[in-house]
Amino acid sequence: MTNTTSTSFELPTTGTEELARALGELRPLPSERVPFEQSVGRILRDAVPADRALPACNRSRMDGYALRAADLVPGGSMPVCGEVRAGEDGAVEVPVGSCVKIATGAPLPVGLDTVIEHERSDRGEPVTFDLDTVEPWRSVHREGVDTPAGAELIASGTRIRAHHVGLMATVGCTTPVVARLPKVGVFSSGDELVGVEDVPLPHQVREGNAPMIAAMLAGLGTEIVLRGHAPDEREATRRVLEEGLERTDLLVTIGGISAGDHDLVRPVLEELGVRWWVAGIPIRPGKPVHIGRTEDGTIVACLPGNPVSSLVTAHLFCRPIINAMTARTDAPGWEPRQLAEPVREAPRRTTYRPVRLLEDGRARIPAWQGSGDLAHLAHCTGMVELPAGRTVDTGTVRHLDWRTP
Q: Residue 24 belongs to a domain with what CATH number?
């Protein structure tokens, strides 16, 4: 049975038709129950309903006096026949023409329809108010006004956040049904890479891509179960990739997918049975990107090795893949933003550039030295899409915020 849920994902418009079709038909990962306190970041599978009307009774919004609006007499005083505190049942008989003291959140006794705050009274007994008339339901939080019993509070496909945890606690949903976390492996390749704790020689670089992409994917709500690296050697590459395909729902590789003699990742994956949905795409950066799937169902995303290319393509492709796997429906998407400065030259291919949002909401593209320039990302908060074949002034472009997974 294929998934019929409306899954939220946006892909580049060129060369991804088969991928979009495949993700739309993808069977989501299984569901599981988790304690609601541990559900933040998970994707809800069963909607959470209100188990009763909210609020469940008419209650006071203020500290003051509860009464019948029709009983208020201009300039007159009113006997105070009791008090209702928050947490009490409000079972107080209030004769016509009388009132009760009431606390914020306390239930109104039957028949009362108004609360007058202490500040509009002399707080005497009997009490006098400085109001001549009041409308019924003044300062009353009416029964069921927030939501009726049985109404859907949190929709299936929602990524659970802190306020959802509060709602679940309020309606007694202690073990929500959520999507299993996608198991993800991140694999890097290249003889030039050394560990982050090493002192690299001039011709070497510390391995920054894999930690960056693993952190980004973890932030989207995945479980990183494997981190691997192999030199540019076929058997070592095959061992790491075989393990990744066996243990993960999504295997992300970085580097080794171009046409060079030492680019081994793509041919080894093909030997291991990966069928490509995307085999290169006319975008910049990220043209060599490959996306595919094994017969057993593991999805493979092969990202380029340059750091900006790998980060851009991870956002372009891994985000929608994870959304499809978990049947997420509320994922933040692309939004219109104005550029702070014009683009001087029309790009030959659709181009994705990291940007920083200014205080006025415009997007500024920092200077860069190409897709190997990781340093220029330091203050970036997202990326914009620059259409191929035309220059862009300070008009509107599509923007994806990296801070809202």
A: 3.40.980.10
What phi-psi label fits residue 82: left (phi over 0), alpha (psi between -120 and 50 degrees) or beta?
Answer: left
pLDDT band of 3, cuts 50, 70, 90: very low
Using only C-alpha atoms, the chain has a radius of gyration, in whole angstroms, of 30
Bridge partner list, 386: 351
- C-alpha 302/C-alpha 12 separation (Å) is 16
Q: Is residue 8 part of a domain?
A: no
Cβ proximity of 265 and 223 under 8 Å: no
Alpha-carbon distance of 237 to 231, in angstroms, equals 7
**What pLDDT score was predicted for residue 9?**
60
209 has pLDDT over 80: yes
When divided into structural domains, the chain yields a total of: 4
Residue 251 contacts residue 301 (beta carbons within 8 Å): yes
Amino acid 331 reads A
**Mean of the per-residue pLDDT values for the chain?**
92
**What are the two backbone dihedrals, phi and then psi, of residue 175, each rounded to the nearest 5 degrees?**
-135, 80
Distance CA 48, CA 141 (A): 23
Strand ranges inside 304-391, DSSP E: 335-338, 350-357, 363-364, 382-386
Residue 296 contacts residue 357 (beta carbons within 8 Å)? no
Burial class (CB in 10 A: 0-12, 13-18, 19+), 280: middle
Residues 135, 21 within the same domain: no
275 with 394, same domain: the answer is no
- Quick one: residue 361, left, alpha or beta (phi over 0 = left, psi -120 to 50 = alpha)? left
Q: Where are the beta strands (DSSP E) in 240-307?
A: 250-254, 275-279, 283-284, 290-293, 299-303
Which structural domain, as residue segments, surrounds residue 246?
17-30+181-326
Q: Considering the domain boundaries, does residue 368 fall inside one?
A: yes
- In DSSP terms, 152 is beta-bridged to 49
The end-to-end CA distance of the chain, in Å, is: 28
Residue 90 in tokens? 């409000």
pLDDT band at 93 (very low <50, low <70, confident <90, very high): very high
d(CA 11, CA 16): 7
Collect all residues with Cβ–Cβ distance below 8 Å to 370 and sequence separation of at least 6.
Answer: 285, 306, 308
The pLDDT tens digits for 265-315 are: 999 999 999 999 999 999 999 999 999 999 999 999 999 999 999 999 999
